[in-house]
Write a sequence for this structure.
């Protein structure tokens, strides 16, 4: 059971206050059905008026974890955790969530195992960010559907990548992305696709190997967005055999190294940053 408490600073109603806190109508409906609303310890409805100094307590409805998710004993590196979320470092060769080809030992199952072993936390996890199986780095999980809603599109995500060729400039790739007509996996730049924006800047260039180390900031979250955009500008990622031909690495060289956002409940700024992974530095000798 998750309970949230607010001290009211100006006259309003429960519904207006919660909508102003970015609660969705879906969340309000769920709270009315299976949660609870208290003002100064008295049960109320969303129509209840609020005055300055009132204490509003919201009990979120309990959630049920999917029976298909099996908590795993795999170790997981926890970077940050509070009552609302848990942030972890995903290794490459691990799914964020189960798939048909890899039904178990996913990252979410490893996090469930960690929570059961260490905190006895029975929260239901919702991935706010997801990474491809062979992309490493930071993944954020919310501990309730409401928290997932509050964090959606509120997190600044930065990546490091290695790509073929010299990336000479900083800039933006603004090319729409759609599913390729001949594949259910591959994406491609297409005028019929969804608008997509990738901001980038080159950090280092190794002329001997003709490899660039690039920092990327995502402004949209399309499937394979970074890989598709860098192929489109002539710089496919090292190790990305789906969108290029390079085989210097056993996976595509993409690492989610930083997230920055405001914690919606406390308004604290959270900034998590990871160093460059070891397999990148093995390729990029100067590092």
């Amino acid at each position: 059971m998750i309970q949230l408490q607010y001290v009211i600073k100006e006259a309003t109603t429960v519904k207006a206050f919660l909508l102003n806190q970015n609660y969705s109508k879906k969340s309000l409906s769920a709270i009315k059905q299976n949660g609870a609303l208290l003002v100064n310890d008295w049960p109320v409805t969303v129509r209840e008026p609020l005055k300055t100094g009132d204490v509003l307590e919201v009990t979120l409805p309990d959630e049920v974890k999917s029976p298909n998710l099996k908590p795993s004993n795999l170790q997981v590196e926890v970077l940050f955790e509070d009552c609302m979320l848990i942030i972890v470092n995903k290794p490459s060769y691990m799914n964020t969530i189960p798939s048909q080809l890899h039904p178990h030992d996913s990252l979410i199952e490893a996090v469930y195992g960690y929570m059961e072993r260490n905190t006895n936390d029975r929260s239901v996890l919702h991935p706010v960010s997801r990474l491809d199986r062979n992309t490493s780095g930071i993944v954020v999980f919310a501990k309730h559907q409401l928290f997932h809603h509050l964090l959606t599109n509120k997190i600044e995500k930065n990546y490091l990548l290695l790509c073929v060729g010299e990336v000479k400039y900083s800039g933006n790739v603004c090319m729409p992305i759609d599913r390729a007509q001949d594949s259910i996996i591959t994406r491609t730049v297409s005028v019929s696709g969804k608008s997509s924006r990738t901001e980038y800047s080159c950090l280092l260039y190794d002329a001997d190997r003709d490899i660039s180390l690039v920092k990327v900031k995502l402004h949209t979250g399309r499937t394979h967005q970074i890989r598709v955009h860098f192929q489109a500008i002539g710089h496919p990622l090292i190790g990305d055999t789906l969108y290029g031909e390079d085989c210097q690495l056993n996976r595509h060289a993409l690492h989610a190294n930083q997230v920055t956002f405001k914690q919606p409940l406390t308004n604290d700024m959270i900034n998590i940053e990871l160093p460059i992974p070891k397999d990148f530095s093995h390729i990029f000798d100067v590092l």
About this structure: The radius of gyration is 22 Å. The chain has a mean pLDDT of 93. Residues 231 and 243 are 6 Å apart (CA to CA).
